[in-house]
Amino acid sequence: xxxxxxxxxxxxxxxxxxxxxxxxxxxxxxxxxxxxxxxxxxxxxxxxxxxxxxxxxxxxxxxxxxxxxxxxxxxxxxxxxxxxxxxxxxxxxxxxxxxxxxxxxxxxxxxxxxxxxxxxxxxxxxxxxxxxxxxx
Length: 136
Ligand code: CMP
Prior knowledge:
The chain contains 7 helices and 4 strands, in the order βααβααβααβα. By secondary structure, it is α+β, with helices and mostly antiparallel strands. It has one domain (4-134): Nucleoside diphosphate kinase-like domain (Alpha-Beta Plaits, 2-Layer Sandwich). It binds adenosine-3',5'-cyclic-monophosphate.
């Protein structure tokens, strides 16, 4: 049975800066994702703080928000069967040095912070994150 889902994907500043946007978008397309909507934006630090609010209490929160707002990013709505889990599989582990061969973070990530992509981690967060960027 099909289980079509949408998930929110971000191509982070480190990847945009290195001109990897088309290459990373192709990784999603090759894996069967449809890009339903996308835009290039630069977040204010306060937007990043809001977006990553679930990590508010973590020691890395401040650096994380500074980083996500440090340069342009691409935000996309990706659609596919079981998109949330499929995207997490394709991205690989949060820390590129633990990510499996062939995953986006293994191929392009630089460090746990500069790990090139973000993807929603649950159905609930996918809805929240898609609304955050695309609700008019
Ligand atoms: P992301 O999937 O965007 O979600 C939160 C981000 O915090 C994560 O990717 C990492 O880039 C970053 N981060 C920095 N330090 C850590 C850590 N120790 N554990 C998890 N995420 C971290």
